[in-house]
Write a structure and sequence with these properties.
The complex is a heterodimer of chains A (about 200) and B (about 450). With about 200 residues, chain A is an alpha+beta fold. Chain A contains five helices and six strands; from the N terminus they run βαβααββαβαβ. With about 450 residues, chain B is mainly alpha-helical. Helices cover about 70% and strands about 0% of the residues of chain B. The two termini of chain B are about 15 Å apart. The chains are: A alpha+beta (about 200), B mainly alpha (about 450).
């Protein structure tokens, strides 16, 4: 097993000795298997504000981390259904009904005779209903994905760590944030060291 | 990847070979085939339940297509996996291969039509009871307008070419099925990776041949039932039926094997979820997409020689049946299967597969049975036509429909079980088996 390194707090000359606020601790692993085993232990230890960082998708890691299922599919389904009905109402109002509503300005429906079809012709509406369903669902998927992941985010404290750069290359990391209610600097460090990592490092905010 | 290396997968004979008692199921299948086809023929011969000979022969065509589409769906699955070099599907490929293997003998069920055409059964059966263009003289006498249109098509729609094409379809399907099944089985003993490469190489041409033969088979056997009508989308529609039936049958075969305690640790909920996705995509979404595309173009253009086909499916009892099909084949299963969970449990996925197989049968019945009103040209409005034909019955409840379909189903089931017993239930030396065993949905 390699040595365990705890990086010294970086203090720049001229700055107060008072160390910067701790963001959290990271532990480095060499293989996905080691990471998976460690993740299960972190999960069982009851930490909430923690994450795994891998260079590629690791199957089964969700389960090892105990990540709850996202509610995104429910939102997408709701958005899709909204799109279906919105597109129907828009077409029904503009093509089939002649009453007036307030939509920013006063708008009146205009029943229009198209190739001798009845004013309310559902088959003609379906392509638009389909497209708007897809549009709403796709926009919701992307925007909620950004929202849930806190994106766009141009900076992250973990970028301070030189060691962490290998998370996009050949190393696997677990980070536990200081804001976790169970986080105690000394105790959490001991805990991470007990997971058999290559190294444990403190990262400042 | 701890789960991949953590526990070994049991590839012992007890887990991946069909045990002898399971072969008893084959006899049940054979029994169903004999009882169904024999009982159906008896009803057709005696005319019980008011069965007209024409209805019997068309019901037999529905039953024939019901079995055929399951086998073609299996073949489609097999060559698409090779075409895309898919890894996940290796564990569930054998059930599809077993379904496709039936194509080597399924032409036997087409022989009654050969006899019907070239020998005939007198008043009990003539070729033009099914395909009205088989007897152009009678068609001309009964419906001169239609005969005038059909006469322009004789270069394609003539008995000689029809039977040559039928022979080509069956030959292509049998050869393709034989090629993929025998190479896959050969790999079980040799483990030769070149067999996989050969199947990959030929899966491209196989896809082209499959596309052409199923399209033209749909034109010949179903679309030409209304010889003046045409739809360029019809072949794709029939292909959707093949995919629906094939994936449903695959799911049922795989679930049955698992309920026998086989394929333990090999076929997991992950594989079943993906089979469910395929059924969802092809059986519900793509089917509805194609069916609606076909309908909307004809509905919008509103040309009488095209709308007649849909008119025949809107008058009398056919109108409600069209709605039953819309909801049964698309709306209800779409909502039921859209979530991840129903696809992962045997009971819900199995129920969906049975449901889709049942509505695939309704779909075939809806395609084959209705007759376009011969006095179509005399109607001025849709109302006139629907009033005149308000009493049209679908005869869907006639037991002959179900007996014949059960017969074809039994024959396919027996053939599938036989094919499964001829080799192990997974391609145990396929180079991608490991990838398939580790497969997980993200």
């Amino acid at each position: 097993m390699a040595t365990i390194v705890t990086s010294p707090t970086e203090t720049k000359p001229g700055q107060p000795a008072n160390p910067a606020k701790l963001y959290g601790l990271i532990a480095e692993f060499e293989t996905p298997g080691d990471l998976m085993a460690a993740a299960e232990k972190v999960r069982d230890a009851g930490y909430k504000w923690w994450d795994c960082h891998t260079p590629f998708p690791v199957h089964g890691l969700d389960k090892a981390m105990g990540i709850k299922r996202t509610i995104l599919p429910v939102l997408v389904f709701g958005a899709g259904a909204t799109g279906t009905f919105a597109a129907f109402l828009l077409q029904a109002f503009t093509n089939s009904w002649d009453f007036t509503i307030w939509a920013g300005v006063w708008v009146t429906g205009y029943p229009y005779l198209i190739s001798g079809k009845p004013a309310m012709s559902l088959p003609a509406f379906i392509p638009v209903m389909f497209e708007v369903t897809i549009l709403f669902a796709a926009l919701t998927t992307v925007s909620m994905m950004f929202l849930f992941n806190g994106l766009p985010q141009l900076y992250h404290p973990l970028f301070r760590s030189n060691r962490f750069r290998r998370a996009s290359n050949d190393r696997f990391f677990i980070s536990i944030e200081a804001r976790d209610p169970k986080f105690l600097p000394r105790k959490t460090e001991e805990f991470l060291k007990s997971l058999d990592p290559v190294a444990v490092e403190a990262v400042e905010d | 990847m701890a789960h991949a290396t953590g526990h070994a997968v049991d590839l012992g004979a007890k887990n991946i070979e069909l045990p002898a008692p399971a072969l008893g199921m084959r006899n049940i299948g054979l029994g169903l085939a004999v009882v169904g086809l024999g009982g159906g023929a008896a009803i057709g011969y005696t005319g019980a339940f008011g069965t007209e000979p024409a209805h019997f022969w068309r019901a037999y065509l529905v039953a024939f297509l019901f079995g055929l589409t399951m086998c073609l769906g299996g073949l489609f699955f097999v060559f698409v996996q090779h075409l895309t070099r898919a890894g996940w599907s290796v564990a569930v490929r054998r059930p599809a291969e077993a379904l496709a293997a039936n194509l080597r003998w399924y032409w036997i069920l087409f022989i009654p039509f050969v006899v019907l055409w070239f020998v005939g059964f007198g008043d009990m059966g003539r070729a033009n009871m099914v395909w009205m263009w088989a007897d152009m003289e009678t068609l001309k006498a009964n419906n001169p307008e239609e005969a005038y249109v059909v006469a322009k098509k004789v270069a394609f729609l003539n008995p000689t070419f029809f039977w040559i094409r039928a022979a080509v379809y069956f030959a292509v399907w049998a050869l393709l099925a034989h090629f993929f099944v025998s190479n896959s089985r050969a790999q079980d003993s040799t483990g030769d990776i070149r067999l996989s490469e050969r199947m990959q190489k030929w899966s491209g041409p196989a896809a082209i041949l499959f596309g052409l033969t199923t399209t033209f088979a749909a034109f010949d056997w179903i679309m030409s039932l209304s010889p003046a009508w045409f739809s360029t989308m019809f072949g794709v529609y029939f292909f959707c039926g093949c995919a629906t039936a094939g994936f449903s049958a695959m799911i049922l075969v795989t679930l049955r094997l698992r309920s026998l305690g086989l394929l333990e640790g090999i076929v997991t909920a992950e594989h079943m979820q993906d089979l469910g996705k395929l059924l969802f995509a092809f059986g519900m979404v793509f089917w509805a997409y194609i069916a609606f595309s076909q309908y909307m173009l004809i509905w919008y253009a509103n040309i009488p020689e095209e709308t007649g086909w849909f008119l025949a499916r809107q008058v009398g009892g056919w109108g409600p049946m069209s709605f039953v099909l819309l909801f049964g084949h698309f709306v209800i299963p779409f909502v039921a299967l859209i979530s991840k969970w129903p696809k992962r449990f045997a009971i819900s996925l199995g129920a969906a597969a049975v449901w889709m197989l049942a509505f695939h049968f309704v779909d075939l019945y809806w395609l084959v049975m209705p007759e376009i009103p011969h006095d179509l040209a005399t109607f001025e409005t849709y109302r006139q036509a629907s009033d005149k034909y308000a009493d049209t019955a679908t005869h869907f409840g006639n037991p002959v429909n179900f007996l014949l379909a059960l017969g074809a189903f039994g024959a396919v089931a027996a053939g599938t079980i036989t094919a499964l017993s001829r080799s192990s239930l997974v391609p145990k030396r396929d180079p991608r088996l490991g990838e398939s065993l580790r497969f997980e949905n993200m």
